[in-house]
């Protein structure tokens, strides 16, 4: 079988042109499975973006090969100890339905023996990826709204049944905490206000939401586009967040590489 000859190796800067071409054709083929426009995630067709990602020290860009020929790629990012995120998965559309994607995922998971949890996301309209990820054992646990036109399904695959939840109780938060996971219910989102940032001198919209769990509540600062991504009474998982203090009040913030997941059982 073709899938038996699949390899997964680190992508190199000199692979960028080939990877960008395959990525462009793969993501633009989504028009056949529910996409309303012919396109993909930011930089999906850019040779420079693909080349840049092969050089990042915090991201593993992996290429998928068959008999030495590149047929696809994906990025792997360590969210937290034991928790890895897969991003930007693509396979040459001329080689779909040949077991390449499934075998690639099997190999990638073998490459990270410390992984206890895998996560990824995919557009809610994409019936092809929905069926594929669920066949691999991924289960949808929430949605994300960072795309303004549609929601993304947030999937997870728990490999270790003893894997402990990463979330820290709100009552245990303290000033200076970084790279943490917090889960809670959105109590309120007041109208946004405009502020001028001391960092870039630009005007931004800010809303001081409030989230709570059984141990307490905390101010959750939402900036700009993040304001529309959550609603009152939704239960959210905030990953890669950090805690600051302003006028003796704790504030929870989402870092540059953080995200907000609206949990399904909210």
Overall pLDDT confidence: 94
Q: Looking at CATH, which topology of the largest domain would you report?
A: Aminopeptidase
Beta-strand residue percentage: 35-45%
Strand order of the largest sheet: 8-10-11-13-12
As a whole number of angstroms, the C-alpha radius of gyration is 20 Å
Cα shape? globular
Helical fraction: 10-25%
**Mind telling me the CATH class of the largest domain?**
Alpha Beta
Order of helical and strand elements? EHHEEEHEHEEEEEEEE
DSSP summary: helix tally: 4
The CATH superfamily of the largest domain appears as: Gcn5-related N-acetyltransferase (GNAT)
Identify low-pLDDT runs. Answer: none
Rounded to the nearest angstrom, the distance between the terminal CA atoms is: 44 Å
| Global structural class | alpha+beta
Could you explain how this protein is built, in words?
This protein is α+β, with helices and mostly antiparallel strands and 266 residues long. The model has no long low-confidence stretch (mean pLDDT 94). The chain folds into 2 domains: 2-158, Gcn5-related N-acetyltransferase (GNAT) (Aminopeptidase); 170-263, OB fold (Dihydrolipoamide Acetyltransferase, E2P). Helix content is 16%, strand content 42%. Helix 1 crosses helix 2. The protein has a 5-stranded mixed barrel. Strand 6 and strand 7 form a beta hairpin. The chain has 4 helices and 13 strands.
